[in-house]
Amino acid sequence: MAQENDWWTFHGDLGRTGNIPGSKITAANVNTLKKTAALQLGGPILSTPAIAGGYVYVGTANSVTPQAGNSTDDGGYLHKIALSSGEITHTFFWPTDADEGDTHGFCGMGCTPAVVDGFVYFSAFNGCVYCLNADDLTQVWVVNLRNTDSAHNQPINNDNGESPKAEGWSSPLVVNGRIYVGIGEGENPNLYAFIFCLDSATGNVVWVYCTNQYEGSQPNPVNQLPRAVVPSGVPSGYTIFEGAPVTLGCSVWTAISYDEDLKRIYATTGNPTPIDNGLPAVGWSYGILSLDAITGEYRGFYQADAKSSYRPSDIDVDFGAAPVVFTRNGQKVVAAACKNGALFIVDADTMEPVVGYRQLLPYMNNGDQIPTVDPHGPDTATNPNPVISNEESNKHPAENFYGTYSTPAIHPGTQRIFVGVGGNNYHYVAPGIDYKTTPFMRALDWNTLDDAWELSNEDPKRYVKPSPPMYQTVAESGLSSPAVVNDVVFCSTSKIALYAFSVADGTPLWSTDIGDQTGGFNGGYGYCLGPAVSGDYVVVGSLIYGSDGGILQIFQLDGGK
Asked: How far apart are CA 255 and CA 169, in angstroms?
């Protein structure tokens, strides 16, 4: 069973704070961490593992091992691994045809499982949510949230036969006998996006909320479905919206967060489609949506400030990371980071900003943009990494490949927020981070959002003590979610590496190289999306070159010091 000090759900708790209690790991002993296991699991890992009751639960984004007795070898695995020995004790495989997976060709899963009361819950790229017995990983139930599943009170058919399909990246939020997940696909202009509330015992839909706003002046009713996803009739317990929504897109890509006091859930949203002009945007795109956890009723929405993007020409600025709910100076707040490079903090009740925003990408000391940060130009192999002026980038609409996909970690003792910086490195126009000027993680004062670690007198300013390893490696970005343990903050990077720094001043304390990137473009694929921590253990899963495309590594304090 999951314990209070386990990493039993995404980012460790229901608020997604990334702060784990009960560990002996400190700045004084973190350098004694030793690798105790390195496992190939039959595919790449695109998620942070869960740890509960002495076991690791982790899924693969694809299966690369032939499956006897199945119609397809494509699909995913969920593995249960003994934390102390590294032994794989049980494995669950589910088949998914290649054309039924996600937009990148993945057929497995990309979420952190939730391990609760003897069960394991996860969402998958086939649009389904699974419940397994935690003991032996036998299936208890599965509900299809892409296609109609009448047996589970699920009337929606969100599949127009075209790719990409509606999919599940959302790590399940499990609380009070309910499961909350997001399902959608922002790159298909004909699909809708939803937040589902499920009964954890049966998988039956309790309520569903469409995140595509129907009318710009008012919230959507709970259990009101677009006619496009219910071709005929009116299912019992639901109503139908016959018109066209303000926009499509607005998918929930990541974990939903929960506040016990307000009984509310919080979900970040992606881009509008088919028209995306950046910020400000129509509907509930590019923001934080709040719903009543019990009834599903709308409680509020905050959209990223139109001035917060690094460049006015930034588009496709999804919130690709989970919101974090925590208490800041006696006030319950929600923090979330956006692909436009900005971090926001809003009041958990009113959804109004409480401290403005912080652009995480660097500027010159006089406030000017840096041309090599978030460049906008042709993404072509014939002219990789072009030199583009600020003037050209500011007038050319393009995606910000340098922002953040990181769920922040909170350290209440020092009132600090830690957030990864940088994007993916598989584009020719940009390597995902301007490594010479940009740290792969920021340490911020939660009162002002100013940098909490000492800065140099250079132009632009850089952190002093974390360099090296920061500012040293081409294309090394913090596309991951940090974790805080006592006076240590862990951060993984696209190098692919895992680091431990001092919470107090950023002093490097420990590091390990995990594997190599796949190559190509500006390094190709290479991911370690963040560590899981429980007791004396740190666990990471990665997408790397070779080794079946992925590897799981377990580290333990030497002698449990």
From this structure: 8
Distance CA 60, CA 107 (A): 9
CA distance 435 to 130: 40
Of 195, 23, 55, 43, nearest to 120 (Cα)?
A: 55
pLDDT in tens, 175-223: 999 999 999 988 888 999 999 999 999 999 999 999 999 998 899 999 9
Straight-line distance from the first to the last Cα atom of the chain, in angstroms, rounded to the nearest whole number: 25
pTM of the model: 0.97
- Residues in the chain, total: 561
* Residue 64: closest CA among 30, 108, 13: 108
C-alpha 532/C-alpha 522 separation (Å) is: 28
- DSSP SS3 for 560: helix
The pairing of strands 331-337 and 287-292 is unpaired
Q: Which of 1, 36, 137, 14 is nearest to 555 (CA)?
A: 36
Mind spelling out the 3-state secondary structure of 200-227? CCCCCEEEEEECCCCECCECCCCCEEEH
| CA–CA dist 148, 316 (Å, integer) | 30
How far, in Å, are 20, 266, 314, 490 from residue 483 at the CA level?
A: 8, 20, 29, 5
Which residues share a beta bridge with 476? none
Which residues are CB-neighbours of 25 under 8 A, at least 6 positions away? 33, 485, 486, 488, 533, 536, 538, 557
- Enumerate residues 6+ apart whose C-beta is below 8 A from 551: 38, 39, 40, 41, 45, 514, 515, 541, 542, 544
Q: Pick from 363, 382, 374, 336: which is nearest to 437 by CA?
A: 363
- 164 burial (CB, 10 Å; 0-12 / 13-18 / 19+) is middle
Tokens linked to 249:
């897109």
Rounded to whole angstroms, the Cα distance separating 475 from 433 reads: 6
pLDDT 10s digits, 393-450? 999 999 999 999 999 999 999 999 999 999 988 889 989 999 999 999 999 999 999 9
SS in 3 state form for 474-487? CCCCCCCCCEEECC
Whole-angstrom distance, CA of residue 30 vs CA of residue 52: 22
Residue 70: which region, alpha, beta or left (left: phi > 0; alpha: psi -120 to 50)? Answer: beta
Give phi and psi for 484, each to the nearest 5: -115, 130
The residues, any chain, with a CB within 8 Å of residue 29's CB and separated by 6 or more, are 557, 561
CA distance 429 to 450: 30
- Rounded to 5°, angle at Cα 180 from 176 and 183: 170
Q: How far is CA 53 from CA 8, 48, 83, 84, 115, in A?
A: 9, 17, 9, 11, 9
Q: How many angstroms separate the CA atoms of 179 and 172, rounded?
A: 6
Q: Which residue do the tokens 């406030």 mark? A: 367
Buried b / exposed e along 14-46 (16+ C-beta atoms within 10 A)? bbbbbbbeebebebebbebbeeebebebbbbbb
